[in-house]
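Fold this: Ser/Thr protein kinase RdoA (MazF antagonist)
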Amino acid sequence: MTAPTTAPTTAPTAAPTAAPTAAPTAAPSAPPFARFASLRRGDPAPGWLHRTVLDAWGLPAATSLTLIAVSENATFRVETGGSPVGVLRVHRPGYVADAAQIEAELHWVRAVGEDTDVRVPEVRALRDGSLVHAFTDETGARWFAVQFGFVDGEVLEDVLAAGDVDLDVVRARYAEIGATTAALHEHVGAWTPPRGFTRFDWDLDDALGAGSRWGDWRRAALSPQQRDVCERGELAARAVLATATPTGLVHADLRPSNLMVDRAGRLTVIDFDDCGWARLLWDFAAALSFIEHEDFTPALASAWLAGYRTVRPLSEEDLEVAAALSVVRRLQMLGWTTTHRQDALPPAVWAAQVPGTARVVGEYLRRPRWLFEDGAR
């Protein structure tokens, strides 16, 4: 992607686009896939799934489906003749209400690919031309599946986690993530979604509390002191965000684990499945998911902001909102750990979620803008 090198001077940070339709929130805290509970990375897809996928997309009988990961969805690598040709995504029951919401995501992905320099995967239509495969298994359960073209390269998170990667390299990538995010926000501000476009909201009640989409952070194993800090932090963040309203369609999970980097160093944005209507700087908070407690994170936050500002301006009020959203996101992801498999994260990252959350929220209560102080701790 080639981002503009100067920021517009008059465009507001919040895109004027209003959501055509805010879809109802799916049932909160949907349990992990029971039917995939025994699968591990690299395992073949079960026969009932394999058969319907090959038929729906008209794939050769020798095509293999092997598990990549289970999180909000189950993703499978599609191989034909020993070569990867696509990625299949099977949606977590209850996470997205219906096929229309999934189709909306795919329409945006296609539009981004056609209208911008941001690299995204190809959306693979079924052999009947539709985008979403809706089917019922032998137990009567309803499923939705979609397929994307295979993206060559490595996951950026894995590249940056290599022991010999310098912090300056990581900072440069976070600046690129910020610029890429801003390019998506620019697109949303100018794009007219197709008729019937519907995605869910990421408002505060969808992110926090008993009705949250991913689980209530209060169910985590917190000490009384940690719980008190988190309660006060949530109240403080909510107070900052009380008058803000959803401002646009966001990726909602644009972080290194959802970016592929090819041999030429080019990034491809993947996994738009969490996209929805929210404050645009929800994408800032998402970029730092799971690592807010690390000593190097303020440097990455500063780099993200610098990259974003090469495309779009940010005001002092925006920074206040971004800091509050980072607290909300950290609490949301703590709730996420209460409804997801432990192997969805590296062991050290999983173990850091409770103490790290208390540390992050405590810093916010002491210095609300601590995250923007490069080398703050």
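The chain has two domains: 43-149, 154-366. The first helix runs from residue 47 to 57.
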